[in-house]
Design goal:
With about 300 residues, this protein is an alpha+beta fold. Helices cover about 45% and strands about 20% of the residues. The chain has a single domain, classed as Glycosyltransferase, CATH 1.50.10. The chain has a 3-stranded mixed β-sheet with strand order 5-7-6. Strands 8-9-10 form a 3-stranded antiparallel β-sheet. Strands 1-2 form a two-stranded antiparallel ribbon. It is globular and about 50 Å long.
């Protein structure tokens, strides 16, 4: 029979562990399960390739499992590792700073509080090198192919809204937030990228990282004192729910995609560094607060 004192001690430990994975809203009306931080850190650290000093993109899907992206992956992962308290953060940052001038690409930079250009472009892959079987790729904008209908892409709407917040324009950011909610179909963000895949595959495949971006923008606006976000708290809660479902229970990474089958969320896709890093930054970092600090 388990000793009563030991039982109480184990119960306290279990409760404390669970407490680290829940949040409550400002009115303490509910709690929401969140991705496990220790597992997120374990996954990202396991993606690290020592001979390169950077993280690989995927786990099992070829060729993502042998590809290392300077940006978006490692620019985001370096900060995510820092948020999670990993000593690998400084190593990755050193490689980025010494070899790639920081690794910026004018798009995801805004997630780290860095201003981005007013025009979005399609991205192209610049091959850098191959080291011990790993391809190093730098994803940079193709200046010959601007994206004029950026407002039909959920991720780009978030980036633009955050950039406006960085410049102190909450009203415009709120307008874009409202437009973003119009892309929500009850299960995910049904934007032009999702529609394109649907046309090719015949089924809707949603992106997990766009859920995290919504959470990021929601938090950033919340720090400014915006009231409009609370009308869409149901979307925020659903995003967190699906993100938590998308975390691999063994390896800890966040799977990239999901489908809806008979009204149920079914997680698909490989785990990858980029999606996992965005989740960390959106949920656990102070970057949303930093971006919103210029609100006026």
């Amino acid at each position: 029979m388990l000793h009563k004192g030991l039982f109480i001690l184990l119960s306290i430990v279990l409760f404390t562990s669970l407490l680290g994975s829940i949040i409550a809203d400002n009115n303490n009306n509910h709690i929401t399960l969140l991705p496990d931080k220790s597992l997120l850190r374990t996954f990202l650290e396991n993606q690290y390739v020592p001979e390169v000093g950077l993280l690989r993109a995927g786990v099992s899907v070829y060729s993502e499992n042998i590809t290392i992206y300077v940006a978006n992956d490692n620019v985001l992962a370096a900060r995510a590792l820092e948020v999670l308290g990993s000593p690998l953060a400084s190593k990755v940052l050193t490689v980025l700073n010494n070899n790639f001038s920081g690794g910026w690409n004018g798009k995801i930079d805004i997630l780290l509080g860095k201003d981005i250009p007013d025009m979005f472009y399609n991205m192209r892959h610049k091959f850098i090198a191959e080291i011990n079987g790993y391809r190093i790729i730098y994803e940079i904008p193709d200046l010959s192919t601007p994206i004029n209908d950026w407002y039909n892409y959920a991720d780009l709407v978030v980036y633009r809204a955050l950039d406006r917040l960085l410049w102190g324009s909450r009203p415009y950011a709120e307008k874009l937030f409202i437009n973003l909610t119009k892309l929500w179909d009850g299960y995910g963000f049904y934007d032009n990228a999702v529609k394109g895949r649907e046309n090719e595959t015949g089924k809707i495949i949603y992106d997990v990282y766009k859920l995290a971006l919504f959470v990021y923008l929601y938090r950033a606006l919340e720090y400014t004192g915006s009231d409009i976000i609370y009308d869409y708290e149901h979307i925020y809660e659903k995003c967190l729910e699906i993100i938590s479902m998308a975390q691999d229970k063994e390896k800890g990474g966040i799977h990239t995609d999901y489908e809806v089958i008979n009204g149920e969320i079914v997680i698909t896709g490989d785990m990858n560094t980029e999606t996992t890093s965005i989740v960390v930054l959106a949920i656990y970092s102070d970057y949303p607060m930093v971006i919103s600090s210029n609100d006026c």
